[in-house]
Amino acid sequence: MYQARRPAENRFVPLRHLRYHVRTWGTPRPGVPPLVMVHGWMDVGASWQFVIDAMAQDRFVIAPDWRGFGLTEAPPTDQFWFADYLADLDFLLDALVPGEPVDLAGHSMGGNVAMLYAGVRPQRIRRLVNLEGFGMPAMPADKAPQRHAQWIDELKAFARGEKALTPYADAEGVAQRLMRTNPRLPADKAAWLARHWARPVTAADGSTQWQILGHAGHKVVGAQVYRVEEALAHFAAITAPVLVVEASDNEMPRWWGERYTLAEFHERLRAVPECRRALVRDAGHMLHHDQPAQVARLIEDFLA
Asked: How far apart are CA 238 and CA 117, in angstroms?
């Protein structure tokens, strides 16, 4: 199994009526802003371990588990609202680094959160790294009735238990699932991630199963249509320099076909006042697992 070079410390922070789990690496240093790293959908803060281990500098890094992921509690709910991630991040920074500008990095959903948050609280962000956080396809307003109908139907599916996450017989089964999803993921890293991405639970028949650490409500579609003009307004309000990092294997066609393309995403980035792009070779969407050394070097060079 993979051996972490820089083991994390774990702590829990009371935040917005939840018990938030946060991993930290290193210690704060005068004159060096904390680096806050936020994970993507159906992921956990431990997912950053390989990048942390590949970094040349021993920075103070903060990586939370979002609400309903990892070891962070979820409220009693059957769905999650995107705006809550913005508020959770703001409360978390107030609790851990009050009044101090931070460097912020986010992957996938976390990259989307980071981009919007940097427009909401521009004074809190010194530099921003967005790893494969593309946003969503534009949804015209006349699709709102259809979207709400889909949302209600999926809430009913959740109530029937149809959104439940598949359990696995053991940690090896979880690791095999991770490698099926990402064929580039080495077995040693998959085995390590499996024990942070899932945990053993006792089933009703007394047997032990490994349950993914993600609330099934995350699988319910959002109720609102995605408004590109709102995202662009957030982008335009960003004052920090932004680095957008993409993988050489573009997976957007698999997700959205022709409804939303990489070229359209690049066009949206024109709204960001100061933005540059970088490419990670031989990597897919989980580029921080595929090429952690490349990602670490890009982040450190940009933050420097």
From this structure: 9
Q: Please tell me the distance from the alpha carbon of residue 113 to that of residue 136, in angstroms, as a whole number.
A: 12
Give me 64's structure tokens. Answer: 């939370």
pLDDT digits (tens, 9 = 90+) for 234-246: 999 999 999 999 9
Contact 235, 228 (CB under 8 A): no
H/E/C letters for each residue in 238-301? CCCCEEEEEECCCCHHHHHCCCCCHHHHHHHHHHCCCEEEEEECCCCCCHHHHCHHHHHHHHHH
What is the separation of C-alpha 111 from the centre of its chain, rounded to a whole number of angstroms?
A: 6
Chain segment 116-148, per-residue pLDDT in tens: 999 999 999 999 999 999 999 999 999 999 999
Q: Amino acid identity, residue 214?
A: G
Q: What is the 3-state secondary structure (H, E, C) of 197-234?
A: HEEEEECCCCCEEEEECECHHHHCCCCCCCCHHHHHHH
